[in-house]
Specification:
Elements (H helix, E strand, L loop, with lengths): L4 H12 L4 H4 L3 H10 L4 H30 L1 H11 L2 H12 L3 H27 L6 E2 L2 H33 L5 H33 L21 H15 L4 H32 L4 H13 L1 H12 L3 H27 L13 H18 L3 E2 L1 H20 L5
Length: about 400
Amino acid sequence: MPVSKRSRGGGLRALFRGGNWLNLVLIFVPLAAVAEFMHWRPTAIFAFAAIAIIPLAGLMGHATEALATRLGAGIGGLLNATFGNAAELIIALVALYRGFYDVVKASLTGSIVGNILLVLGLAFLVGGAKRDRQVFNRTAASAGALLLLLSALGLLVPTIFHSVAGLAVAKGKVAADVEIIAEHRLSLFIALVLFAAYLASLLFSLRTHAAHYAGDGHDHAPADRFGDDDSRGADAGRAAAAAHAPASMGRAVLTLLIATVGVAWMSELLVGAVAEASHALGLTEVFVGVIVVAIIGNAAEHSTAILVAMKNKADLAVNIAVGSSVQIALFVAPVLVFASYLMPGGPMDLNFTAFEVFAVLAAVFVANTAAQEGESNWLEGALLLAVYAILGLAFYFMPAGV
């Protein structure tokens, strides 16, 4: 039976609707494998593996969302906490095993800063492009900002401790090995405190104050200046999500397992090529970790936050951006510290460079300022992106070893 041009066009539109286009990028998974097997240039292996992680992370997000919907809010929240940043965690664990501790710390910094400034900035920008303002829940946003402040303090204290103890070592008052052991112990106990704070935040958002995270703020938001129907867009979004969600829990679990294995495999290729690729591109490993690896690991969440902001769901967009940063700082970072005790290179401390700490503090300050009013507009989004650009430029021009 002949197919009309309209049918063919509809098929193409269906292929690219609702994020299906991202599945086409899966072609880079075998490309990365071929590049590694054929010993192509490290830059090609790095690029192919980096692009391949993006759709795999998207598949993990869809599968996790489907499981969370079927298993209820409590278990669903735990799943989202575990797998929400799985791509970043897997990349960091592989880098940790290979001894790239600086890249791991840089990727943590980049994920925190990127989610606060880049993702939130883009969400505010596109969400406010056709509206005077967007409204979100101040209680939830303020709680997230306070958790981010705690995470910044968790990075600041070990860094200051390292500087003070280093002076004591230089003056001969403390032995170098004693100072190193003290730093590792301090980082371990701070990681325990941060992880406990993360568990408390789960209790706050899932149980005691769950109503503040229900996403009601957009219901009271000002009407669209250009008259588009947000409810119709929301219905279309739900229909698209339903069309792409795994049809059963078995399929969701299988998708999650396959995607996780794929991310682990691509992460191995990515980390294996990061040193030579960064040198060939004239980039420092810190810049690659802070900007490139962080953006790759958070690609799925980036797109989700921007899409929901376009549908005037400012609460959800803010929760995704701020919540992801909180997960990185209070969940992923402590887990990496715990896991480092099983690694060949020994324990990892939380001593970051001075500029990395400054970048996190600056991002947290800006996020706190943006969240305190409970509303946003496109200009605030543009300014958040400007701050991210300034910090990115500083990391780009910063010499290696600083």
